[in-house]
Design goal:
Largest sheet: 7 strands, parallel
Strand order of the largest sheet: 3-2-1-4-5-6-7
Order of helices and strands: EHEHEHEHEHEHEHHEHEHEHE
Number of domains: 2
CATH architecture of the largest domain: 3-Layer(aba) Sandwich
Low-confidence stretches: 298-302
Radius of gyration: 19 Å
CATH topology of the largest domain: Rossmann fold
CATH class of the largest domain: Alpha Beta
Shape: globular
Strand content: 15-25%
Oligomer: single chain
Helix content: 40-55%
Structural class: alpha/beta
CATH superfamily of the largest domain: Glycogen Phosphorylase B
Length: about 300
């Protein structure tokens, strides 16, 4: 009998990292893939990125709607509650032998909390990491404590998970999934990229993603965003390519301000989501990644 492996994805970046893992599970004759999609993947506001999943020839076994049309703290908490209800029903129906999750998002926290109570074993990828200024750390470490197997990106993260009390024999240093993803993508040429995105690169080009810092106040966040946009507006002969922030506290307010800024800048464009191929291709053409997104390192790609 095949073992049922359920993978949960809620964001564009996380799916980019999980894509090859999902494919390997799907191709293994001893395993049965169960794919659950939630969060921003199902939102028109964030690009309906479930289409990218379907475009990768994966069958979606369940869709769990949980996002509300607000980005306040209470709205995020209520979304987590909706997620708990949705995952409770879905996981009971699918009855997986193992739940596979990645990272630190609140959508994943809901999935893992439900699985933990239902007695479903959990494998957590990219645990042990730290994020400055966000509540991600608390969620990530909580997910770690509810998980049974841990696949971390380096020795430092491995030691941190062990320090949290996890048995060393359950913690595996497997490296960053982003590196594997980069090697598998065929990049689009500069000309084709301009045609697909309907843009024109300049002498200098920046890729900008700026997320709200969830542990800071509204005033502090707005001040930092205004400072960033003001600095960008002073650049000459520079194309500004924005990707919008995630569905976090204040994320929609940031998106509105960024979109309003782009309307005033002729050499700029904003995208809700580029997808992995286009994002990697843009990275090959730009001079600098600007903002506070983990998309610029080797583990997260939006």
């Amino acid at each position: 009998m095949k073992r049922k492996i359920c993978v949960v994805t809620g964001t564009r970046a996380e799916f980019g990292l999980l894509k090859n893992v999902i494919r390997l599970i799907d191709e293994n004759v001893r395993l049965q893939l169960q794919l659950v999609v939630t969060g921003m993947h199902l939102s028109p506001e964030f690009g309906l990125t479930y289409r990218e999943i379907e475009g990768s020839n994966f069958k979606i076994d369940a869709e769990i709607e949980m996002l509300l049309s607000a980005d306040t703290g209470p709205a995020v908490v209520k979304a987590m509650g909706l997620g708990l209800i949705g995952f409770s029903d879905t996981l009971k129906r699918l009855s997986p032998d193992l739940l596979v999750v990645l990272g630190d998002r609140f959508e994943i926290f809901s999935a893992v909390t439900a699985a933990n109570i239902l007695g479903i074993p959990i494998a957590h990828l990219h645990g042990g990491e730290l994020t400055h200024g966000a509540f991600d750390d608390a969620l990530r470490h909580s997910i770690t404590k509810m998980s049974n197997l841990h696949f971390v990106a380096n020795e430092q993260y491995q030691q941190r998970v062990i320090q949290l009390g996890e048995h060393p024999e359950t913690v595996f240093n497997f490296g960053g999934l982003g590196i594997d993803a980069i090697k598998r993508v065929v990049l689009i040429t500069r000309k084709d990229l301009e045609d697909k995105l309907e843009i024109k690169f300049c002498k200098k080009n920046l890729l900008i993603t700026f997320h709200p810092i969830t542990r800071e106040t509204y005033a502090e966040n707005i001040f930092q965003l205004h400072e960033l946009l003001m600095a960008l507006s002073e650049l000459e002969d520079t194309f500004l390519l924005f990707t919008l922030p995630n569905a976090d506290t204040m994320g929609r307010q940031f998106a509105e301000l960024i979109q309003a800024f782009v309307e005033t800048q002729p050499r700029s464009k904003v995208f809700a989501s580029l997808g992995q191929e286009l994002y990697f291709s843009c990275l090959s053409q730009i001079d600098c990644v600007v903002g506070n997104s983990s998309g610029g390192n080797d583990k997260h790609w939006r």
